[in-house]
Amino acid sequence: MPETGAGQPLLQVRQLSKHFRQPVAGGWWRRWRTVHAVTDVSFDLWPGEVLGLVGESGSGKSTLARLLVRALTPSSGELWLNGEEISRLQGRALARLRPLLQLVFQDPASSLNPKLRVGELVAEPLLVGRRWPRAQAWAQAANLLVQVGLRADDVYRYPHSLSGGQRQRVAFARALAADPLLVVADEPLTALDVPLQLQMLQLLRDLQQRRGWTWVLISHQLAVVRWLAGRIGVMYQGRLVELAPATALQAQPLHPYTQRLWAAELPWPATRDRAATAAAPPDAVTRPTSVAGPLLPSRRLSAQGHFTGPAPAAAGVSVGPDTATKGCAYAPLCPWAQSECWREPPVWRAVRPGHYVACHASG
Question: What residues in the chain have per-residue pLDDT under 50?
């Protein structure tokens, strides 16, 4: 999937999928089901770019984040870093790759070892393999803490003595220490209150501008992603349904799920007064200008967020337990649904330069 950019992409993702097997309760025999956490995700990531990933809980964002840093092995597909295929690396080859791909977790309290001082946590990537002398590694750790807005003498403190915002800064300093090529931040602001979120946003922008990091930023807060990211990808049930520059996606989202996310967005920073006066979900999302094929009867969006109207069978579609899984996963909720939406999955395609969408109705 070629995209606009200068030179060679840093990261190339091709048809990346991850499936898990889970036991199903019931009966005296053990049964298993396959959970498709990520399915056929493809995109390019360029050096120095910030890519945002949005979507509701359970859409596969965190699983994709772990696939990108090779914390998980893909079930299928390919992952290329600087022209080298890394999706099947194991053992020492994978261990050498680890410092180049860093993951910042949502909850720093659970990702930082409470038995180690902050200096040990930040210096650990420098001490692995005895690359740095211990005294020099601690001095570098103190310097990194200053870069992320902490004090140099915080190297002697333990994580439990820090606030949530300070622990998140330590997590970013630890990622900085490895001098990575790619940093994936999975909901890095969720555990913080609004004033700390604003401080962390400015810190992330400053770090990206100074260090030239390549970022993948995962967040539920659309305003945060738009403020930091040059491009935004939208995920639904493990699939990437739309990918476009942030300005284009804000001006004209094409996928109905993307429009629904934008319509449900609260003002940010969200306050209790603003949330109370926020408008209810719209009755219907905007229909694309060109729609191919017969549409289902009109369906409206209720205040509870569910589409109402005639059943899909009214358009001649045979509805069964596997109907949605044979075609587009969003078809049961889509107000534009066509007959083919229930039979065939949409193709990932470019509708204009740099703007990709997986939807039968968007053209």
Answer: 2, 270-285, 289-311, 314-315, 320-324
Residue 355 lies in a domain: no
- At residue 97's C-alpha, the angle toward residues 183 and 10, to 5°, is 55
Asked whether residue 231 is domain-assigned, the answer is yes
**Residue at 271 is within a domain:** no
Residues 237 and 312 in one domain: no
Domain shared by 163 and 309, yes or no: no
Residues spanned by the domain of 342: 280-350
Residues 32, 23 contacting (CB under 8 angstroms): yes
List, for residues 5-21, the tens digit of each pLDDT value.
Answer: 557 899 999 999 999 98
**Residue 19, Cβ density class (10 Å: 0-12 exposed, 13-18 middle, ≥19 buried):** middle
Q: Which residues 6+ apart lie within 8 Å of 214 measured at CB?
A: 10, 11, 45, 46, 47, 48, 49, 50, 181, 182, 183
Q: Give which of 209, 156, 192, 149 is closest to 173, Cα–Cα.
A: 149
pLDDT of residue 107: 81
Q: Is residue 356 part of a domain?
A: no
Run of H or E residues at 104: strand 101-104
- State residue 184 phi and psi, 5-degree precision: -110, 120
Q: What are the CA-CA distances from residue 202 to residues 189, 197, 208, 228, 230 (Å)?
A: 12, 9, 10, 9, 16
Structure tokens at 68: 């990108």
**pLDDT at residue 149 in the model:** 84
